[in-house]
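User: Could you write out the 3D structure of this protein bound to NAP? I've included everything you need below.
Assistant: Certainly. Input first, then the structure.
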Amino acid sequence: MAMPATGRFEFATDLSICRILGGMWQVSGAHGAIDPAGALAAMFAYHDAGFTTWDLADHYGPAEDFIGAFRRQFAAQHGADRLAEIQAFTKWVPHPGPMTRRVVEEAVDVSRRRMGTDRLDLLQFHWWDYRDARYLDALRHLADLRDAGRIRHLALTNFDTERLAVIADHGIRVVSNQVQYSLVDRRPAARMAAWCQQHGVTLLAYGTLLGGLLSDRWLGRPEPGRSELITASLGKYKQMIDAWGGWALFQQLLAALKPVANRHGASIANIAARYVLDQPAVAGVIVGARLGVAEHIADNARTFNIALDAADLAVLDPVVSRSRDLLQLIGDCGDEYR
Ligand SMILES: NC(=O)c1ccc[n+]([C@@H]2O[C@H](COP(=O)([O-])OP(=O)(O)OC[C@H]3O[C@@H](n4cnc5c(N)ncnc54)[C@H](OP(=O)(O)O)[C@@H]3O)[C@@H](O)[C@H]2O)c1
């Protein structure tokens, strides 16, 4: 089945994306072993179903190499002209240190080499410590590299609203910020989304399915112990649920989602993804894919045919409003890393 037009988004000039991006942290090794040949075959399956956009990072194990291999095989099968059908959004997560032109250039060149491309579609920049203002040096060099054609668009990940404003005030143009955004973690709605809308910046959301916890699979299940949280992602988001309100409240959320999903002939995961896609400033949600291990192609494609209405939201709102305020508890988006 062809992907509906609602599955695409004009992300930036000459850059259309699928609104559900394939998340490649899941191939890093922290989520179980991945067989490269199986992963590559899965990438073709996702692409053929219309999931043409990938999110990755320099530190997600072989993810950038997988993109390189995928692009080579894709070009061999379909011709290099069609490589533009693939969008691969990587990140640079440098260790703290001097951000000279040389350091920045070398990092970008490593990603270009690994991904087999002269120009990165999107480079999302992460920074660990705002007290170290050298993130502005790095961003200035990245902007130069963009202007020189080595990066198509510059973006951020896990920056808070205050620093988005600082970066804009320094005249550095970015197209998006990647942040955690889900029915459980709604911090971006507090201040960031409005700022983004005013300044023409979009959000790419991760953690939308809480590593898979926000799905039919976990409805009615007792609180999982560590041995059941078999991926890094499950462990990360179980902690987030604990901070948000705990397993009992989370089960109430799953129970509230189930009839909404049934009404739409959909899954809980579909409703969770649709909810975030409908939020202001959100360009897309990144859904992790354990390539070659587990796939959710047909199920996730259904998300684009769902329209949530006021009655659906009226069922969900009372549950999520009983949670703790993560903004107060953790801080703005990305503060969980600092
Ligand atoms: N910028 C950052 O700091 C940051 C941080 C975290 C993640 N990310 C990005 O976001 C991506 C998403 O990762 P995440 O850790 O946040 O996980 P996630 O997307 O919330 O969850 C991914 C898991 O959800 C399950 N799933 C997917 N579709 C499903 C469906 N239709 N029904 C039921 N289950 C479904 C799969 O579990 P199974 O494999 O078990 O089936 C999959 O492994 C990462 O790969 C990465 O690209 C970025």
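Residues 23-26, 55, 157-158, 178, 206-212, 215, 233, 267, 269, 286-288, 290, 294, 296, 299-300 surround NAP (CB under 6 Å).
User: Perfect, thank you.
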